[in-house]
């Protein structure tokens, strides 16, 4: 056996496996990221939330991606803790079902998917078709990588050293489980880790008594990934992965105790060891969903005890600034504090924009004044953030810290401008309605409400991006900008047509209609600029929309 050649081929196959999983995830995100984000944030009852999480995880082939999305919605207040825990448990089951599907003999499908997906990705005209082709190509490469792993492990299965190595591992199942958890965390993909184990088992390298603690370790390590990635988020975002990890840890510990007591696992469905391990993985997560749906409330209370709100966070009548002057000499902590305050500005914009159409339709002096007070809070927050980051910049910063400071300053500026647009344009329309301006036509108002809903969705995405800089959210914001542009064009065209037809309500409200359209479009453009730094980092943003000169 040529060991270096085997190791090199196995390493190449593993990297291809990880790349293929990433390719599928990015393709699905880009092709239907808006639907993915709305599904995760849909919440609802626990059963429905678990179903949503399962479906999105199957589409993305990643429960970690679902966890990051859910954390963003939890921070913005759109997803309750118990529903969020159900989403994550459903996502774990979804990723297990992905493994089950991929465990079938699909080697014949790989060439078809690679050829079809590659051609679609290279030749399709629409962006969604291009990204769908990328996802199909990723699935084909994933199947190819599994074939490569199987080929690379053939010499290992025939090695005379294998029986003694497996016997050594079988003597310390706890260490095997811990190492599997660490390995899964290092890969940042429980799907990839389980597929590697199953492929080894199919080649006779991993027996059942070693495979069981490996599978339990993978499930434990899968919970560590999201907890690690959300470590810098506000407490609302960190509670979800912590609760999910506790669910996994408790259930893994219970099953490991049974295994250590020599409880039989031969009852697992499947004729071969590989099939039994896959079914154990699926049954583990299915049982966890059933238990979790009952225990989400109790787990939520436990997580709140372990991660309580900081003093002042529970007071809804006052905001305590995160800009701690004692952190000025500690740039990393100071910039994190500034980020929290920029998020507060984003939440203020959300509070201001959400009811503005209702206020325009049925204004009262009290509601107009209340929204103007929020604009004052936005101005104060912007001024404090600007001065605070300027003080931080007087110290010694790394290049990354300097870039982050500029991003936060620009985000605060854009949010302040957005607040000004709402206050000076949209609230001015409300004031004109108070002063007796005419009502809108039914069709015109419906168009304005559709436009407002699209813009408000983008503002919420911007708030999520501040706490979870996921390229998925950034790409969705840019796609939403294009949707808003389409709605603006349609509304303006329809409004002019109504003027041509002499619709009285449209004639009376024409100036207001066009001003609201312009203001909402400007708010959307301002918040969308916050997505550009993330997209530049990932290479997803063109420097110019101009056609290159010949």
From TrEMBL:
<keyword id="KW-1133">Transmembrane helix</keyword>
<protein>
    <submittedName>
        <fullName>Phosphate:Na+ symporter</fullName>
    </submittedName>
</protein>
<keyword id="KW-0812">Transmembrane</keyword>
<keyword id="KW-0472">Membrane</keyword>
<feature type="transmembrane region" description="Helical">
    <location>
        <begin position="6"/>
        <end position="28"/>
    </location>
</feature>
<keyword id="KW-1003">Cell membrane</keyword>
<dbReference type="GO" id="GO:0005436">
    <property type="term" value="F:sodium:phosphate symporter activity"/>
</dbReference>
<dbReference type="GO" id="GO:0005886">
    <property type="term" value="C:plasma membrane"/>
</dbReference>
<dbReference type="Pfam" id="PF02690">
    <property type="entry name" value="Na_Pi_cotrans"/>
</dbReference>
<feature type="transmembrane region" description="Helical">
    <location>
        <begin position="245"/>
        <end position="265"/>
    </location>
</feature>
<feature type="transmembrane region" description="Helical">
    <location>
        <begin position="277"/>
        <end position="300"/>
    </location>
</feature>
<feature type="transmembrane region" description="Helical">
    <location>
        <begin position="210"/>
        <end position="230"/>
    </location>
</feature>
<dbReference type="InterPro" id="IPR038078">
    <property type="entry name" value="PhoU-like_sf"/>
</dbReference>
<dbReference type="InterPro" id="IPR003841">
    <property type="entry name" value="Na/Pi_transpt"/>
</dbReference>
<feature type="transmembrane region" description="Helical">
    <location>
        <begin position="101"/>
        <end position="122"/>
    </location>
</feature>
<feature type="transmembrane region" description="Helical">
    <location>
        <begin position="134"/>
        <end position="154"/>
    </location>
</feature>
<feature type="transmembrane region" description="Helical">
    <location>
        <begin position="49"/>
        <end position="81"/>
    </location>
</feature>
<feature type="transmembrane region" description="Helical">
    <location>
        <begin position="174"/>
        <end position="198"/>
    </location>
</feature>
<dbReference type="GO" id="GO:0044341">
    <property type="term" value="P:sodium-dependent phosphate transport"/>
</dbReference>
